[in-house]
Amino acid sequence: MLNPLYITMQSRKAHLCLPEPERSEQKQPAFGRNMVGAGLPVLVSLLLALAASTGSAHIPHAGTAASNSSDHSALLSFKALIRDDPLQALGSWGNRSTPMCQWHGVACGRRGRRRGRVVALDLGDLNLLGAVSASVANLTFLRRLRLAGNRLNGAVPSALGHLRYLKRLNLSDNSLDGAIPPSLSRCRQLDSISLGYNRLKGKIPRELAALPNLGLLELGRNELQGEIPHELGSLHNLVVLDLGHNKLGGTIPAEISNLVNLEYVDISNNKLTGEIPPGIEYGLGNQVSIHGDVYSYGILLLEMFSGKRPTESRFGESFGLHKYVQMALPERAAEVIDRDLLAETEDGKESSSNSNSNMDLRIACITSVLRTGISCSQETPTDRIQIGGALKELLAIRDRFDKEMCAEGEPAN
């Protein structure tokens, strides 16, 4: 288990009675929060993308697939509910001279039953106004759905539960309301759910505990009520749990202590009472300098992507993890990268050229991550990159990785 475990709260007291904040109508900027914890969801999503590009990339046999005409119709139905497209991002959609797989934000598979079928829909940060059409559920082979950073309203369609291959769902930073559909629990391959910064109401569905691969659950900045389901304690692969800034009540479930892979928890600004369950350590950044936060984040980056701990016997005061990684880059990068992140894919139909290209892409992206870690963990505080700059670099690396993998018909997430 990687340390430290960050749990953001408003008080160091064991007894919690966290005040409910007034909801701000102004969206917070993506990089306006000077705290290490804000970057962990980005870090985890990058790790999930890398992990999904290895052994989990092969999709099981799904029987006879419908023609891509159903995908075509589903996308046009989605467009029909968009009332304003200021950037004309969907201008190519429906144009007979532009193949569906070349429409903006659409990625299709290139091999097997995925060939010509939509596997990723990425329409984030386009200022789209409208609703999420339930027709998206007809994109049978969809693995990634990202509609974050728009002006989408209405409910999260319960029909999304039919997407049996969906791995990443990101509808954050919109104006969605209504309840979180329990049907999402039927998307058994989901490893990331991001629904933060919306207006979602109701309870957190306890059914989400049935998702065995879930690594990130981000529901912060909504209007959720009720108690934190104790069933979430069975999500043993969970790394990030963000429930902050809601209207949740009751006590913190003791079962949360069972989440051995948990790295970041935010349950601040709720109406929680009672004792903090034993076994949960927590840290606050209130009394730590920003430079210190950046240093810790940099070491965490180096630790997670090298697979090495700063406390290992090979490292001492004069030769630490920072210098170990720095000396290896760039020529010997593959020697210091965690071997699990460079595992070969299990898709036997993949050509050797594609496999080599995939490996080169992973090494290049992880090398960029390690460089960011080095920039964060410089010895002199004033030489360290600011946390906002580090997050921007990580997002750029993740987006590059996703884009390249989608171009090969194998979406990384």
Describe the 3D structure.
The protein is an alpha/beta fold and 413 residues long. It is built from 7 helices and 16 strands. The chain folds into 2 domains: 244 residues, Leucine-rich repeat, LRR (right-handed beta-alpha superhelix); 118 residues, Orthogonal Bundle (Transferase(Phosphotransferase), domain 1), CATH 1.10.510.10. The strands form 3 sheets. A 9-stranded mixed sheet has the order 1-15-13-12-10-8-6-4-3, with helices on one face. A 5-stranded mixed sheet has the order 2-5-7-9-11. A two-stranded parallel sheet has the order 14-16. Helix 3 packs antiparallel against helix 6, helix 4 packs across helix 6 and helix 6 runs antiparallel to helix 7. The protein is globular.
Question: What's the rounded overall pLDDT mean?
Answer: 78
Gyration radius over CA: 21 Å
Helix content: 10-25%
Distance between the termini: 23 Å
Q: CATH homologous superfamily of the largest domain, by name?
A: Ribonuclease Inhibitor
Q: What's the architecture of the largest domain, going by CATH?
A: Alpha-Beta Horseshoe
Taken from the alpha-carbon principal axes, the silhouette is: globular
Give the biggest sheet: 9 strands, mixed
Uncertain segments = 1-38, 53-66, 281-292, 344-351
Query: How much of the polypeptide forms β-strand, as a percent range?
Result: 5-15%
Given the structure, what is the number of helices? 7
CATH topology of the largest domain: Leucine-rich repeat, LRR (right-handed beta-alpha superhelix)
Sequence of strands across the biggest β-sheet:
1-15-13-12-10-8-6-4-3
**N-to-C order of helices and strands:** EHHEEEEEEEEEEEEEEEHHHHH
Structural class: alpha/beta
Give the CATH level 1 class of the largest domain.
Answer: Alpha Beta
Q: Can you tell me the number of structural domains?
A: 2
Find the count of extended strands (DSSP E, 2+ residues). Answer: 16
